[in-house]
């Protein structure tokens, strides 16, 4: 869902080209070592003041550094003030500054989402270090995340703490987000197993999306964007906080004809939140989300499906109560989700007309307690999943868990995190998920992290109850997938300009579920695969000077199936993201994003790679009556590159989008 966000902009200056990025970067770093962070770049307001040779060199070096680093590296999104230490919730289920976490976390803010010009959630996430998205192409097509070489069902996706992964297939389709991008306050990406806190699906990591919190000043937002292939996004939202009440209401429409035969999209979403401060530290909130989506399913280029249609109707509601209970801080949440999927393909080899309805009832209770050097969290949850399918029949499964965690401040420089979770399931073996991590501050600006954790992913309803046909059948005797992961990382603060993070990890997974054909050529899921994934990550965030931001991230993966000694399918060996942002200058800013992916040669890839560039230009305007609006132009796939994230499903060609967002 598209949507542009109001941001304060000031000035802009174009960046000259450089013939030697490496030399420019090194030279500029030497000069910048004594320059204040807010020193203006070339073109900043120094009119009427002396222009010494030193200031001249500083301006040129800042520009050269931005270009040099952007040619070598990138980050998922532009950094805000380099001294900002964002508060993170997902890593520990409690609010803590990122610098105090023994975990690898990326925080993507609303400002950063707006700067990229993204109109889809997968476009926002695919630039994060260690995260690869796999989209089947057009707007509305299935898109799933992968963290450190995982499958989509091994990544848990949360919306304001509510689980979005489907019990039917285990994953969350990023195209089915029931809220506009303009309503997102921030996204936290936790890399590494988190079953010790979240249980199933968090085998590789967690992505949590936080919606906007209403402010004391009421604000109404209207957004419109138009693009190629008759793509149109409209969204509306209004928020208000008054006395002890707050609310947020929003709606959105997405329409597109798509660039392939039978790839059109018609999507509507509604969302709202109503909250009350009950006094005495207690707070009660009710939130609801609704998605109604119909889209064509074009199939792969090798096996097209020109008549296949799909409709999703998803409803999500949650009631959350927080408050004190003696020395404890209690959180109680009741949630309900209903997913309905209708899939029809009258033109296939075997005509299909299926309806699947999945309902999930959930209860979560947790308590936080601080005592001396210990920050203790404990709790439990219960979920009941019901499947009503014309293909798979009716099934009911439930699961419950107990978990505990202790964050211990050993000294002012050393902290430990110990966690343990027990999950019980009605249909398969119980699971125990431990986690241990340490954070040591070598200096005020250098931190060393180490962790070891175990995680699991439960078999899905599809895995267990796929209808028996002459081609395929489910397997009710499956065991959960399990994995151990080990990580060592270094965080280096670069003065007040940014941060450099280096990490290395190894994941050993077993009992991986794979669909294989038996001697009768009937496909069925079995626990056969074992995999070992080695990897390394580098992330660099830099606020070069007042007018320039640049950064880089790089991910290396060595993912091997230990049973076959083959590389895991569709995993990028090298993944690089780069960006350069110029501005604000005269209220406008310009951003260029680039990404490079090179895959292993496997069953689906020939080992080649690709480079994709995106550009976005934005400027705010204020009318005489005080109404503010932002205008934006975004050019996606600037080089018109032919590429595929999911083999056999071409990604969009060059697309031009124009949009306006009004605030009043």
UniProtKB/TrEMBL annotation:
A cellular-component GO term for this protein: cell outer membrane
Domain of life: Bacteria
Any one GO biological process: siderophore transmembrane transport
Compartments reported by the entry: Cell outer membrane
InterPro entries named in the record: Beta-barrel_TonB, Beta-barrel_TonB_sf, Plug_dom, Plug_dom_sf, TonB-dep_rcpt-like
Record-annotated TonB-dependent receptor plug domain positions: 98-206
Domain annotation TonB-dependent receptor-like beta-barrel: ranges: 261-622
Alphabetic keyword roster: Cell outer membrane, Membrane, Receptor, Signal, TonB box, Transmembrane, Transmembrane beta strand, Transport
Family: Belongs to the TonB-dependent receptor family.
Protein's UniProt name: Vitamin B12 transporter
């Amino acid at each position: 869902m598209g949507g542009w966000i109001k941001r304060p902009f000031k000035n802009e200056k174009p960046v000259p080209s450089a013939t030697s990025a490496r030399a420019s970067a090194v030279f500029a770093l030497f000069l910048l070592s004594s320059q204040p962070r807010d020193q203006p770049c070339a073109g900043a307001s120094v009119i009427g003041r002396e222009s010494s040779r030193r200031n001249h060199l500083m301006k040129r070096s800042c520009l050269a550094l931005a270009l040099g680093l952007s040619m070598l590296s990138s980050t998922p999104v532009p950094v805000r003030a380099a001294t900002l230490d964002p508060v993170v919730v997902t890593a520990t289920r409690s609010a803590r500054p990122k610098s105090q976490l023994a975990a690898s976390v990326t925080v993507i803010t609303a400002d950063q989402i707006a700067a990229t010009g993204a109109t889809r959630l997968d476009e926002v996430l695919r630039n994060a270090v260690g995260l690869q998205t796999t989209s089947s192409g057009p707007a509305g097509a299935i898109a799933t995340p992968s963290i450190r070489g995982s499958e989509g069902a091994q990544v848990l996706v949360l919306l304001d703490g509510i689980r979005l992964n489907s019990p039917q297939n285990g994953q969350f389709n990023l195209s089915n987000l029931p809220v506009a991008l303009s309503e997102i306050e921030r996204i936290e990406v936790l890399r590494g197993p988190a079953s010790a806190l979240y249980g199933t699906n968090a085998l590789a990591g967690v992505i949590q999306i936080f919606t906007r919190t209403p402010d004391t000043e009421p604000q109404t937002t209207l957004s419109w964007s138009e693009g190629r292939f008759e793509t149109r996004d409209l969204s509306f939202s209004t928020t208000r906080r008054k006395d002890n009440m707050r609310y947020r209401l929003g709606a959105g429409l997405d329409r597109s004809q798509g660039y392939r035969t039978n790839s059109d999209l018609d999507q509507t979403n509604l969302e709202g939140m109503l909250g009350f401060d009950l006094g005495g530290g207690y707070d009660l909130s009710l939130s609801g989300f609704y998605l109604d989506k119909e889209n064509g399913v074009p199939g792969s280029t090798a096996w097209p499906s020109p008549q296949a249609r799909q409709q999703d109707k998803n409803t999500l509601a949650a009631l959350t109560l927080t408050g004190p209970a003696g020395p404890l801080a209690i959180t109680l949440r009741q949630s309900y989700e209903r997913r309905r999927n209708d899939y029809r393909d009258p033109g296939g080899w075997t005509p299909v007309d299926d309806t699947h309805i999945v309902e999930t009832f959930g209860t979560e209770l947790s308590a936080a307690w601080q005592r001396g050097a210990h920050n203790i969290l404990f709790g439990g949850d219960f979920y009941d999943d019901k499947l009503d399918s014309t293909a798979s029949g009716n099934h009911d499964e439930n699961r419950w868990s107990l978990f505990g965690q202790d964050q211990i401040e050993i000294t002012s420089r050393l902290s430990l995190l110990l966690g343990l979770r027990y999950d019980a399931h009605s249909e398969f073996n119980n699971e125990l998920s431990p986690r241990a991590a340490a954070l040591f501050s070598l200096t005020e600006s250098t931190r060393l992290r180490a962790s070891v954790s175990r995680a699991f992913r439960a078999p899905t309803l599809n895995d267990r109850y796929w209808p028996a046909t002459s081609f395929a059948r489910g397997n009710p005797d499956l065991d959960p997938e399990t994995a151990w992961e080990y990580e060592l990382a270094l965080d280096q603060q670069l003065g007040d300009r940014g941060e450099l993070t280096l990490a290395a990890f190894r994941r050993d997974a077993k009992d991986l579920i794979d669909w294989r054909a038996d001697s009768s050529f009937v496909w069925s899921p079995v626990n056969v695969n074992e995999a070992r994934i080695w990897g390394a990550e580098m992330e660099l965030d830099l606020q070069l000077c007042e007018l320039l931001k640049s950064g880089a991230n790089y991910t290396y993966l060595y993912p091997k199936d230990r049973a076959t000694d083959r590389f895991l399918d569709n995993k990028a060996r090298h993944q690089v993201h780069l960006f350069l942002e110029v501005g604000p200058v005269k209220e406008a800013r310009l951003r260029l994003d680039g990404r490079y992916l090179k895959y292993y040669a496997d069953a689906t890839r020939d080992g080649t790679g690709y480079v994709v560039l995106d550009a976005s230009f934005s400027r705010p305007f204020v009318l005489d009556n005080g109404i503010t609006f932002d205008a934006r132009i975004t050019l996606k796939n600037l080089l018109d590159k032919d590429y595929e994230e999911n083999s056999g499903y071409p990604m969009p060609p060059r697309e031009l989008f124009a949009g306006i967002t009004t605030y009043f």
